[in-house]
Amino acid sequence: MRRFELAVVGAGPAGLAAAIEAGSAGVRTVVIDENLKPGGQLFKQIHKFFGSSEHQAGTRGFEIGRRMLSTLSDTGVEVWLDSQVYGLFPGWTLAVNRGDRHEKVQADRVLLATGASENSIPFPGWTLPGVMGAGAAQTMINVHRVLPGSDVVMVGSGNVGLIVSYQLLQAGANVVAVVEAAPKIGGYGVHASKLRRAGVPIYRSHTVLRATGPGRVAEVTIGMLDESWRPVSGSERTFRADTICLAVGLTPLAELAWMAGCEFIHNSRLGGFIPVHNREMETTTAGLFVAGDITGVEEASSAMEEGRLAGLAAASSLGRIGRAEAESRMQRVWDRLCQLREGPFGVHRRQAKDDILRKFEVRAGDCATSEKPAAGKECAG
Fold first, then answer.
1. pTM, 2 dp
2. d(CA 147, CA 137)
């Protein structure tokens, strides 16, 4: 059995950020990830980040990932790739399938940064080859340099659907249409405008009715939805397309937190069931921290900030950082997080996060504090 002070599960943006903070403080840390390469979503993101200079605005995701890996290499943190954590047991013992052998890890603290999985929707023909998640298509074009198909219908107009559609165009595919069931486009207007300028139609209040073969997707039929979300007869349109990409949301991957006995809260705005946690990202199970999409689906910038919070908190709880210093540094992270949760898109995520923090405080019996939004201590307004 290998022993560490901190075991981080997940080497995506949140996990790397947490490991950098903990490792830099001298915490003996291991990062475990099932993939062959670290970095998670960052290495699929060829677009430039938004926000301020503090959020690395103007820098492409894969460049941020490279910097993080370079920083991590100086901390002494061990990184185990091609390794799956399949059990989390009392005493913080992790069961790990590492390559062709099983191994146990015992840690003083555990930090889950396990990310999220893509949602799907069923429709006639959805099991045909050529139907895939938008994230899978993004991996194919940006990591493996392979087009998933020639003519693509994108389902979903959130930021993932819009950004991946544009990246498919850049890679040489023909994006036939973006289809959105809601009356409004879900993602940023700047992304939708880029697609429209490129001649890609966006059909709002529409859904996929069926995909037909033979053998794989060859045609896609969409139809309009009425106010009750029912297809409108006679509104069908059929496109020649060999690929359907589904960008219909993400669900936090929280199985290990369930296994550890954490208390959960359901929040549809953040993707489903979320482990209840406090402002330092510690769950209702003492010693278990969470960060990134497992705490609610947001963007990579927020995931990295939450990772820093969790890494600092874990290091402080292990006595590697003094309490006053840790609180001061965590407040600076909160200030940046608050900036990311402003505006018409961010405010909804902030309100949803408030609910989670409030739930933790109510559970702790701090009724006086629970009468106001918990995150109000961090985010003014």
1. 0.88
2. 8
